[in-house]
Amino acid sequence: MSLTSERSAIDFGPRQRIWRRGPFSLRASSRAIVVCAVLAGLSAAGGVLALALGSYSISLAQLLDVLRGADDSFARTVVLEWRAPRIVAALVFGAALGMSGAVFQALTRNPLASPDVIGFASGAYTGALVVIIVLGGGYALVAGGALVGGIATAAAVYLLAYRNGITGFRLIIVGIGMSAMLGALNTWLMLRADLEVAMSAAAWGAGSLNGITWQQTGAGCVIIVALVIGVSALGRSLGQLQLGDDAARALGTRLEPVRLGLVIGGVALTAAVTAAAGPISFVALAAPQIARRLARTPGITLAPAACTGAALLLAADMVAQHALPRPLPVGVVTVVIGGSYLIWLLIHEMRKRA
After folding, report:
1. What percent of the chain is helix, strand and coil (3-state, nearest 5)?
2. Has residue 12 been placed in a domain?
């Protein structure tokens, strides 16, 4: 065999594109870029469709007039004040959940490791629930409670799972146990609360974008954008961690500071969404794996996972509003879809290891 034919038989992986601007650089595969562009286009198209759909239907021409500022009728209120914040929230919150799931699945190298499965989302829910029931605070206090609850739960799971290091399987088992305990605690808190507060907390706990305002969406977006920038800055180190600790250390990665930063960033992303919309399950679990299969990347990557999460949550919210006999909280739809996906994933992993 000639040298040319031997080289052609070697798989060098997908083609990479690199951008450099001063001290900053960005590397991504061509297919991942195309996948992100297609998902962004689908999300934009879905957003436009969601602006027009509803009990007060709006034509495309009327929608264009509203967006250009040429229509000051009731349609403007419906589009810009009622529907637009919900759509922006679905896209941004979905991207945050997708990126959060990608962080934990990449850190543990396990497709089951997502914040809602290993208890971090339950911890954020518990923190927010304590603030709602005990303090009766607004968004800032609830967000703070969700963040403290999520980080405290992450610290507890990490310490209980640590045995001369962290393995993905042990972290998941401990996290599932912690999630069950927090579920019982949340139920007890609801039973001890006043009826009106308990009903309000229960509606919020289903995970819903109903009635979300620009104030809530804007505050959540500012926090999430800051967190996305911070987590993205650690994206290269996250890719090296997926190669294993020894390989990452050999490439110059400071393991524990990077892990700590990624865990705090991932928990904070989930907590920010939980504070604004309640716990929305399974988007963080499914989005990274769907994105990995679409982009055909060897590991979990952040940008495709975020784009997939945004498209998933927007689609789930549209189903919750328009495809069912009665509108439901989007968290109910994601649980139904995500539960089916989890069963498929467990069967797939068992067959792969058999």
Report:
1. 75, 5, 20
2. no
Answer yes or no: is 187 within a domain. Answer: yes
Three-class secondary structure of residue 26 per DSSP: strand
Q: Tell me the C-alpha distance between 95 and 50, whole Å.
A: 18
Q: What is the CA radius of gyration of the chain?
A: 21
> If residue 206 lies in a helix (H) or strand (E), which one and from where to where?
none
What's this model's pTM, rounded to 2 decimal places? 0.86
**Other C-beta atoms lying within 10 Å of the C-beta of residue 214:** 14
- DSSP letter assigned to residue 10: S
Angle between helices 84-108 and 302-318 (to 10 degrees): 140
Please count the structural domains in the chain. 1
Look at residues 260, 317, 279, 265 and name the one whose alpha carbon lies nearest to residue 142.
Answer: 279
Q: Distance (Å, rounded) from C-alpha 302 to C-alpha 308?
A: 10
Question: How many CB atoms lie under 10 A from the CB of residue 324?
Answer: 11
280-298: pLDDT as tens digits: 888 998 899 899 889 888 7
Inside any domain, residue 5:
no
- With a CB cutoff of 8 Å and minimum separation 6, the contacts of 303 are 28, 32, 36, 232
Dihedral of CA atoms 90, 321, 121, 258 in degrees, nearest 10, equals: -20
- In tens, the pLDDT along 43-96 reads 999 999 999 888 888 888 888 888 887 777 788 888 888 899 999 999 999 999
Distance CA(84)–CA(63), nearest Å, equals 12
Query: Domain span at residue 302?
Result: 27-321+331-347
Domain at 136, CATH number: 1.10.3470.10
Q: Does residue 101 fall inside a structural domain?
A: yes
